[in-house]
Specification:
The chain is mostly beta strands. The chain has one helix and eight strands. It has one domain: YaeB-like (Elongation Factor Tu (Ef-tu), domain 3). Helix content is about 5%, strand content about 30%. The chain has a six-stranded antiparallel beta barrel with strand order 1-2-7-6-3-8. A two-stranded antiparallel ribbon has the order 4-5. The radius of gyration is 18 Å and the shape is globular. The relative contact order is 0.26.
């Protein structure tokens, strides 16, 4: 007797109701000398991403990539006194502000080195002790758009 697998290509799929709450656990912590959030100047900041021991095996092969994407939880933003829906003339989703509803940061960074459980990266725009929720390889053919546009004044 086999059990039904909803993700099998040969089985019909009916999407279950999405969860109302999402629980995430950090897989790593960021280590750097930045102790306070700031709006800019992250391009040359070097950080170490210390992956928890139970996830080190998940890093296998990551050193083959020149860049990675890190998803971080901006824990200090959760306690910010002001949580604007807009900054100046645009909505919060049209900014890179940390004051977002779910306080997530998604950063594409240069991977400088891997030493066991530690990833040395450059350009990560988060402060010391920021929790990392996920690590993905940066794929130029998938993650970059040559025709991307941004608003001008």
């Amino acid at each position: 007797m086999s059990s039904w697998n909803p993700f099998s290509r040969n089985s019909p799929f009916v999407r279950p109701q999405p969860p109302t709450d999402v629980n995430l656990q950090p897989i790593a912590l960021v280590r750097n000398n930045i102790k306070k959030p700031r709006p800019s100047g992250w391009e040359n900041i070097k950080s170490i991403v210390e992956v928890k021991p139970e996830y080190v095996e998940y890093l296998h092969g990551i050193e083959g990539y020149s860049h990675i994407i890190l998803v971080c939880y901006l824990d200090l933003a959760a306690n910010a006194p002001e949580k604007p829906s807009r900054i100046e003339d645009v909505g919060i989703f049209a900014t890179r502000s940390q004051l977002r509803p779910n306080h997530l940061a998604v950063s594409s960074v240069k991977l400088l080195n891997r030493a066991g459980s530690k990833l040395e990266v450059e350009g990560l725009d988060v402060i010391d002790n920021t929790p990392v929720l996920d690590i993905k390889p940066y794929l130029p053919f998938y993650d970059a758009f040559a025709d991307a546009e941004i608003p001008t004044d």
